[in-house]
């Protein structure tokens, strides 16, 4: 074993830093990201020479590292730290950037050990900066490798990992890293130093709560495992000191992720509060961060009925956003639901950006009701019976809108759009309702006939494409048993029989050939939409069913339009503000000077006893929400409304029309 | 970087690789701030925004369109007149 002067000096200095509990310098000492400076290269050389991989090397190295920690008088000594330093030295010795997967795995082991060292109640805090440093490198590496799987594909193949992962759910490197970082977060959160719980200022490891949480959240968002963040927010709500005690960079980052999480869970009002606070506290020169915050804050506000002002859209961070959100707002104001749908039709150029941001479906589902409100308002303005000043002054009939006019206006809209191809697609697919049709299922998008595209022409082509339907191998008899179709054998019945009198096509529809039944369906849809708007408070009045009308009573004080079509934002915010707590955001109990850090917005957020219970019950349905296809939106929406959400709901959530009887 | 052959193949097989998602991911990353802490003044856009009491002017609450001369409204009015006449 040769002389190791650099290593000796390294360990002596490190010991001194540990004794002084100088965490920042300890981190600075434990470099491992290439390119490493000359002194580290020399130490690596010494390690390779004197501590080459071998059966006894590890023990020998550990022996070198043990004096790093002070021999404690009473309690147990900090054994996790020497083990960590040993792993660090081995990592340096073996680092091979040609095998990034191996590097990743070693780094994860190293971080794990460092997190163990962090757990020590006396000394743990010394490695807090190191844990953060290693976590960041691990995160960077994991994100890089998940983004470029080709870099490690050959290694995976060699090690047979590729096949192995086919069979089980794939856990990405990013997610694996997040789970390690979460351990560090828990160590920080549960530190008992100083005043624990949500009252005291952060001390000891607790200063790392949001540093670790933010990194963890970044990774969860990166790998799309948002629901894994649920427990983190719940723990923070229960145990963290107020967010206001932490530095601005940590506050802003945390509020951004919290806001996005709430947004993804359809809690738009609290999401708006969190994102607005993030925006308000963000440094004005941090344009890229401000832009990211806005790209969720703006849609959040739009759904709640507030549009970005010119002032906001002219700010530098809005430059790239205005072109996406301005047209959307205009379409909502206009009230043309078909133009709105076309704009957000999956696959259209205008929808692409929203899809990339992950907000397309949310906007499409939540904003269409606002479009209908605008449309209804306009039809009322130009086609309603206002009753005249005399009728309002005395006890005359209230202003009414005959819903036949809305149905006629809707038909007119459909006719307008029928001339353009995409308009036809948005309006007149031939399945389901004509007013609120389902978008064409992509699986059926290429079928001939239904959407006007040319289908296969020859018999061979038809058989090849639809053979499983036209010439199936078998069928089920009356008893439900499968029977084979014997080729060349006729089935029961007379082949010459004339079926012309029987209607075989249940979807035989022609837009120009509306029957009374269609009008009835249309009226039902229109009534449903109105009922939904009334239930949500976005329209004020009642419905009459026999001669379908919408009546606006009690408009004397505020005026007819403000009564019948109240301001959306004011309606929603009035209802939401009774509960202004934001799950996951710990606020100071008493409004102190620090309250100003809340962006000038005074939000009284006394912790509620049922808050964590509520948060977790939200999340149990979030799992359903997070998957794109929510089948039973009605049930979910009703549940939601009961819990909290009074945000505009999608149209599919048709409430049972609650027809009132006029007095 | 270590596997140039794969990259080459990709390039020849797909003349227009859908590169947008990759760019997006990088775009979408919430970068670390270069400084740890700053006073609230440095977050304000202008001196007047605090005086205004916050963010109210950033959002338009009243956006209903009452302009009867606007194209869509005009067409709708005409259409509704026709309905009125035929009823």
Structure summarized in a few sentences:
The complex is a heterodimer of chains A (about 675) and B (about 90). Chain A contains 29 helices and six strands. By secondary structure, chain A is mainly alpha-helical.
Describe this structure in words.
Chain A: It comes from Penicillium bovifimosum. Chain A: This is PCI/PINT associated module. The complex is a heterodimer of chains A (663) and B (87). Chain A is mainly α and 663 residues long. Chain A has a domain at 371-440 and 513-568: Arc Repressor Mutant, subunit A (Orthogonal Bundle). Helices cover 55% and strands 3% of the residues of chain A. Chain A is built from 29 helices and six strands. In chain A, the strands form two sheets. A three-stranded antiparallel β-sheet of chain A has the order 2-6-5. In chain A, a hairpin with a 4-residue loop joins β5 (542-544) and β6 (549-551). Chain A starts with a helix and ends in a 20-residue tail after the last helix. Chain B has a domain at 1-44. Chain B is 45% helix and 2% strand. Chain B has helices spanning 4-13, 20-27, 47-51, 71-86; one strand at 59-60. The N and C termini of chain B lie far apart (74 Å). At the A-B interface, α8, α13, α14, α15 and β1 of A face α2, β1 and α4 of B. β1 of chain A pairs antiparallel with β1 (59-60) of chain B, so a sheet runs across the interface.
Examine the secondary-structure arrangement and name the CATH architecture of the domain at 371-440 and 513-568 in chain A: Orthogonal Bundle
Principal-axis shape of chain B: rod-shaped
The protein's oligomeric status is: heterodimer
Q: Count of helices of chain B?
A: 4
Strand and helix order of chain B: HHHEH
Question: What is the secondary structure topology, with strand pairs?
Answer:
The complex is a heterodimer of chains A (663) and B (87).
Chain A: H1 5-19, H2 23-29, H3 38-50, H4 57-65, H5 80-94, H6 100-118, H7 128-147, H8 150-158, H9 161-167, H10 173-189, H11 209-222, H12 230-239, H13 248-264, H14 268-281, H15 287-303, E1 307-308, H16 310-313, H17 322-334, H18 337-343, H19 349-357, H20 360-383, H21 388-393, E2 400-402, H22 403-418, H23 421-427, H24 459-470, E3 474-476, E4 482-484, H25 516-535, E5 542-544, E6 549-551, H26 560-564, H27 568-576, H28 611-626, H29 633-643
Helix pairs in contact in A: 1-2, 2-7, 3-5, 4-5, 5-6, 6-7, 6-10, 7-10, 7-11, 10-11, 11-13, 12-28, 13-14, 13-15, 14-15, 17-20, 18-23, 22-23, 22-25
Chain B: H1 4-13, H2 20-27, H3 47-51, E1 59-60, H4 71-86
């Amino acid at each position: 074993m040769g002389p190791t002067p650099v290593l000796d000096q390294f360990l002596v200095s490190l010991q001194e830093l540990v004794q002084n509990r100088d965490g920042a310098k300890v981190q600075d000492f434990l470099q491992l990201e290439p390119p490493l400076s000359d002194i580290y290269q020399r130490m690596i050389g010494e390690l390779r020479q004197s501590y080459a991989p071998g059966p006894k090397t590890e023990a020998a190295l550990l022996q070198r590292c043990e004096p790093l920690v002070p021999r404690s008088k009473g309690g147990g000594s900090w054994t996790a730290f020497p083990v960590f330093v040993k792993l660090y030295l081995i990592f340096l010795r073996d680092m091979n950037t040609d095998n990034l997967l191996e590097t990743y795995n070693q780094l994860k082991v190293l971080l794990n050990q460092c997190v163990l060292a962090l757990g020590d109640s006396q000394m743990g805090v010394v490695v807090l900066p190191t844990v953060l440093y290693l976590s960041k490198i691990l995160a960077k590496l994991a994100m890089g490798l998940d983004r470029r799987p080709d870099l490690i594909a050959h290694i995976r193949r060699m090690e047979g990992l590729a096949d192995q992962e086919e069979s089980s759910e794939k856990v990405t490197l990013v997610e694996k890293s997040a789970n390690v970082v979460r351990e560090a977060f828990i160590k920080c959160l549960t530190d008992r130093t100083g005043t624990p719980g949500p009252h005291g200022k952060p001390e000891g490891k607790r200063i790392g709560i949001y540093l670790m949480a933010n990194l963890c959240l970044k990774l969860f968002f990166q790998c799309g495992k948002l629901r894994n963040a649920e427990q983190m927010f719940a723990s923070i709500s229960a145990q963290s000191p107020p967010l206001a005690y932490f530095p601005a960079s940590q506050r802003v980052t945390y509020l951004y992720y919290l806001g996005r999480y709430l947004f993804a869970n359809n809690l738009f009002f609290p999401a708006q509060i969190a994102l607005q606070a993030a925006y308000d506290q963000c440094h004005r020169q941090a344009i890229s961060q401000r832009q990211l915050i806005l790209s969720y804050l703006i849609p959040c506000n739009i759904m709640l009925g507030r549009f970005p002002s010119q002032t906001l859209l002219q700010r530098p961070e809005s430059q790239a956003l205005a072109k996406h959100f301005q047209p959307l707002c205009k379409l909502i104001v206009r009230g043309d639901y078909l133009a709105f749908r076309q704009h957000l039709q999956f696959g259209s150029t205008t929808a692409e950006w929203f899809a990339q941001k992950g907000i397309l479906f949310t906007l499409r589902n939540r904003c269409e009701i606002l479009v209908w409100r605008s449309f209804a308002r306009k039809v009322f303005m130009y086609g309603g019976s206002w009753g005249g000043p005399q009728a309002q002054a005395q006890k005359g009939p209230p202003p009414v809108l005959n819903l036949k006019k809305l149905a006629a206006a809707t038909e007119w809209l459909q006719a307008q759009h029928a001339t353009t191809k995409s308009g036809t697609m948005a309006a007149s697919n031939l399945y389901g309702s004509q007013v609120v049709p389902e978008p064409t299922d992509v699986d059926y998008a290429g079928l001939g006939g239904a959407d006007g595209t040319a289908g296969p022409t020859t018999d061979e082509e038809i058989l090849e494409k639809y053979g499983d339907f036209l010439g199936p191998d078998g069928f089920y008899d009356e008893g439900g048993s499968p029977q084979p179709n014997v080729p060349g054998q006729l089935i029961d019945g007379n082949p010459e029989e004339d079926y012309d009198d029987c209607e075989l096509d249940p979807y035989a529809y022609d837009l120009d050939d509306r029957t009374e039944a269609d009008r009835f369906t249309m009226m039902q849809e229109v009534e449903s939409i109105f009922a939904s708007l009334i239930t949500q408070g976005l329209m004020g009045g009642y419905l009459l069913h026999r001669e379908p009308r919408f009546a606006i009573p009690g408009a004397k004080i505020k005026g007819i339009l403000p009564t019948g079509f109240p301001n959306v934002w004011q309606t929603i915010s009035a209802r939401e503000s009774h509960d202004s707590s934001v799950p996951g955001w710990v606020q100071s109990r008493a409004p102190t000077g620090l309250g100003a850090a809340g962006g000038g917005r005074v939000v009284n957020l006394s912790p509620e006893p049922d808050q964590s219970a509520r948060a977790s019950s939200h999340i149990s349905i979030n799992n359903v929400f997070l998957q794109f296809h929510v089948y039973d939106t009605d049930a979910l929406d009703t549940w939601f409304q009961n819990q909290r959400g009074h945000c505009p709901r999608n149209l599919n959530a048709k409430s049972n029309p609650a027809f009132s009887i006029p007095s | 970087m270590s596997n140039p052959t794969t990259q080459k193949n990709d390039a020849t097989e797909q003349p227009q690789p859908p590169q947008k998602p990759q760019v997006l991911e990088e775009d979408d990353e919430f970068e670390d701030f270069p400084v740890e802490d700053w006073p609230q003044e440095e977050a304000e856009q202008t001196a007047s925004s605090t005086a205004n009491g916050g963010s109210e002017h950033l959002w338009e609450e009243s956006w209903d369109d009452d302009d009867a001369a606007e194209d869509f409204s005009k067409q709708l009015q005409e259409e509704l007149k026709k309905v009125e006449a035929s009823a």
